[in-house]
Design brief:
The structure holds two protein chains of two kinds.
Chain A: H1 3-32, H2 39-55, H3 60-88, H4 93-115, E1 120-121, E2 129-132, E3 135-138, H5 139-161, H6 163-173, H7 175-181, H8 185-211, E4 213-214, H9 218-232, H10 238-254, H11 269-283
Antiparallel strand pairs in A: 1-4, 2-3
Helix pairs in contact in A: 1-5, 1-8, 1-9, 1-10, 2-3, 2-4, 2-8, 2-9, 3-8, 5-6, 5-8, 6-7, 6-8, 9-10, 9-11, 10-11
Chain B: E1 5-14, E2 17-27, E3 32-36, H1 43-50, E4 55-65, E5 68-71, H2 77-83, E6 85-88, H3 100-107, H4 115-125, H5 142-154, E7 160-164, H6 172-187, E8 191-195, H7 199-203, E9 208-213, E10 216-221, H8 223-228, H9 230-237, H10 241-244
Parallel strand pairs in B: 3-8, 3-9, 6-7, 7-8
Antiparallel strand pairs in B: 1-2, 1-4, 4-5, 9-10
The chains are: A mainly alpha, B alpha/beta.
């Protein structure tokens, strides 16, 4: 009886985390035209940065701040030492793509070398749950959903109301004209990575929290659902990515509902994410928020 | 008087495509300078090269303001805008996905202080934009879009404005409106460099004009004089499409 509401809550929680990760990918794609295949590993980096802080005996609050700041710094640093030079050498889409895959591998193995292959968990009581009517919500889930909502609100305000957000949208719309209008392209690039990195750090920590235990493959495993959310919500559209994240989170959880022919095993959730994506591409290839391409 | 803009022997192009071959031109403070010439002559490329949007191979671009001289050759666009120049491209000259208001505010990126007050002042002159402030610029008519593009450029309070074919594709009434704006800006002392297909229209109003052809200087002189010049008339104005273009309503002149 309480299975459906429970699945919806679980879906919203994982959807919220997917959503904030997907927004970062979408901003980077929309503004920098880069498909960042390493984004999942930025999440892993954030998760371990937070873990390192808790290992020092500091609170989850400090861990969250550090995860966000460290991953933002990683993203900006990689722009300076990797993506900037790659762009200056006028690398094409394909070479950037391959570079991103290479970066993903390097990051994942670097993290693996430092922390080892075993599973870790944050010092949060996984078994402490709150009952909200028919559903049970763990402390981790409560933290994840509330921080995600805060992050989404902050990003919404940043993009819609601040001058840096307006410049970012202008740059995505027409980079040359943005420069003519007075926008410093270099600043926009760094701001984009700063935001995408911060969101990746937060998403990584929250994913580690709601999963309970995580290992260096966490982000990589999440990459495909993140990309599915980005495409589902219309590639390059930040608001679409948010929506795509929530839709995908819900679809993945609801696919395990026993009423649906017994429900599929939870381990097939990611397969369901892809079926949803393929279905979407067949029915509405421009994504949820995209305009239909004009027929030729 | 020393020129505000001085382009000397500029050779520029795109990647491996050379377009301009040693082009020179000047614009004295407060003057309106026209650049005319056939399609593909390199008129747009000249403006882009000045604005850091084409690759300069050789030559020099100098900008003077308040007694200071700046060698702006190859400067990135945002620095030029901060220095007091602005540019309205021939195509894609508004942010289609952003609202009219956001387009205007973006124009003030280089001079963010009192941007709202400046926008209010501009909306007195560009009245019709006020009714569409919250619409996406992509939804505007051609004439409104061109007005917005000019207003966006003015939001940075430039002293030198580069305009690329502001009348292209507009209905005659909208052409009148755009040229009306330009006449007013000129009377306010703005220095204007304008590329125009409609050579008769612009030469009649230009203090000075340059005819480009094949990426090189061909003729130059005061606009009305070039309009009388038999060679120029024969090459670019006689018999061709321009000859049949009626002169704009005199009202645009005032
Ligand atoms: N981005 C570009 N890359 C390569 N070549 C270009 C580019 N833009 C223009 N060209 C070439 O440069 C030459 C001059 O183009 P330009 O746009 O400056 O001419 P124009 O005088 O402005 O013509 P029009 O009157 O048609 O606007 C043309 O041969 C054009 O094909
Ligand atoms: Mg042109």
């Amino acid at each position: 009886m309480s299975e459906l509401p429970q699945l919806i809550v679980d879906g919203l929680v994982s959807g919220a985390v997917l959503a904030i990760a997907a927004v970062g990918v979408s901003l980077v794609y929309g503004i920098l035209h880069l498909v960042n295949f390493a984004h999942g590993d930025y999440l892993t980096f954030g998760a371990y940065a937070g873990l390192g802080v808790t290992a020092l005996g500091l609170s989850m609050v400090v861990a969250t701040v550090v995860a966000v700041a460290a991953t933002a710094a990683l993203a900006v640093g990689l722009q300076l030492v990797l993506w900037g030079p790659v762009r200056r050498r006028r690398a094409g889409l394909l070479s950037s793509f391959i570079t991103a895959i290479g970066l993903a591998l390097v990051l994942r193995h670097a993290i693996f070398l430092v922390v080892g292959a075993g599973s870790r968990a944050y010092p949060v009581d996984q078994f402490s749950v709150e009952r909200l009517g028919p559903v049970r919500v763990s402390i981790s889930q409560l933290i994840a959903i509330s921080l995600s909502i805060v992050a989404i609100a902050v990003i919404g305000v940043l993009l819609a109301r601040t001058s840096i957000g307006r410049s970012m949208r202008a740059f995505a719309d027409n980079p040359e004209l943005a420069a003519v209008a007075g926008v410093d392209v270099g600043r926009i690039v760094l701001a984009t990575w700063l935001v995408a990195g911060a969101l990746a750090g937060l998403a990584g920590e929250l994913q580690g929290l709601i999963q309970g235990a995580f290992d260096p493959n966490m982000g990589w495993n999440l990459l495909l659902p993140i990309f599915a959310a980005v495409v589902l919500g219309t590639i390059g559209n930040a608001y679409g990515a948010l929506l795509g994240g929530f839709v995908l989170g819900l679809v993945m959880e609801l696919s395990t509902w026993s009423v649906l022919g017994g429900g599929i095993p939870a381990s097939y959730k990611y397969v369901v994410a892809f079926l949803a994506l393929i279905l979407m591409l067949l029915v509405r290839p421009q994504g949820l928020l995209g305009r239909r391409a004009r027929a030729l | 008087m020393l020129p505000m803009l001085q382009v000397t022997g500029l050779s520029a192009g795109f990647e491996d495509v050379p377009v301009l071959d040693g082009v020179s031109m000047t614009a004295t403070p407060g003057s309106t300078v026209a650049i005319v010439g056939p399609n593909g002559a390199g008129k747009s490329t000249l403006l882009k090269a000045v604005y850091g949007l084409a690759r300069v191979r050789s030559g020099r671009v100098v900008f003077r303001r308040d007694g200071a001289e700046h060698d702006i050759t190859g400067w990135p666009p945002h620095r030029l805008t901060a220095l007091g120049l602005n540019y309205v491209p021939q195509t894609d000259n508004v942010f289609a996905a952003l609202s009219v208001r956001e387009n205007l505010l973006l124009g003030a990126t280089a001079r963010p202080r009192q941007a709202l007050a400046r926008m209010e002042r501009l909306l007195v002159e560009f009245g019709p934009l006020r009714t569409v402030l919250d619409r996406p610029a992509g939804a505007l008519s051609g004439g409104q879009r061109q007005s917005l593009a000019v207003a966006r450029a003015l939001m940075s309070e430039p002293v030198l404005l580069l305009l690329d074919e502001p009348s292209a594709g507009l209905a005659p009434s909208a052409v009148g409106t755009v040229f009306g704006h330009l006449a007013r800006l000129r009377s306010e002392g703005l220095t204007i460099v304008i590329v125009e297909q409609n050579a008769r229209l612009v030469l009649a109003r230009a203090d000075n004009a340059y005819v480009l052809e094949g990426g090189r200087n061909r003729y130059e002189g005061p606009g009305p004089e070039l309009l009388q010049d038999a060679r120029v008339v024969e090459l670019y104005l006689g018999g061709g499409a321009h000859a049949t273009t009626p002169a704009t309503p005199a009202a645009a002149d005032q």
